[in-house]
Amino acid sequence: MRAWSAEKLGPEEAPLLVATIHGGFWRSRVDASSISPLAAALAAAGHRVWNLEFPRVGEPGGGWPGTPEAVAAAIDALLGAAAGRPVAILGHSAGGHLALWASHGRPVAAVLALAPVCDLLAAYREGLGEGAVEEFIGAPPDAAAEAYLEASPGARLPLGVPALLVHGDADQRVPVSQSRAYAEAARAAGDEVELIELAGVEHMALIEPDGPARPAIDAGLARLRG
Length: 226
Description:
With 226 residues, the protein is an alpha/beta fold. The protein has helices at residues 36-44, 66-82, 94-103, 120-125, 132-137, 145-150, 177-188, 214-225; strands at residues 5-9, 17-21, 48-53, 87-92, 110-114, 163-168, 193-198. The chain is globular.
């Protein structure tokens, strides 16, 4: 499996560490540079930020389960570097999926998931990413039903980690129904989940450094800093 890497930004002794995980429907053509402006803005706000890169579909070790396992290994390394300081995981789109998935069973302080893909079976049925889910898993659901469940954060509840979901109701890439269904199921399972829906906001606006999601992101991280 290809190793993960991280661009490390912000003060090393910051009271809060944040992992940023980019989207792109797990495909190799989108990389960590897509979320770099937001990562840099969070670092400028005083956080220690690791902007993660990891193997993706089309690369050695990419796809299921290599991609999420690499992200989980990166989170484990970040937790070790934190030396007891709180760690937050922020992911966008497929990165939101990876953030939720990798938080399961790990002592992270919170997950901030921006327009996350939470249910891979529903995403497959809805054709999200023009076949991206089948590419990620490597097979359709009738040939890999267990993998679709294992890869879906919504099927791993409770995660045991507080989550903030931010989703625009004008999102045409990942519908807000993904976050709505996840939030309802997660609360029923006993997880602490907040869902903020942004009226008229589309998919990519959520990772703009001064975009409509930024106030919610800043407020969520401020709560962790104390």
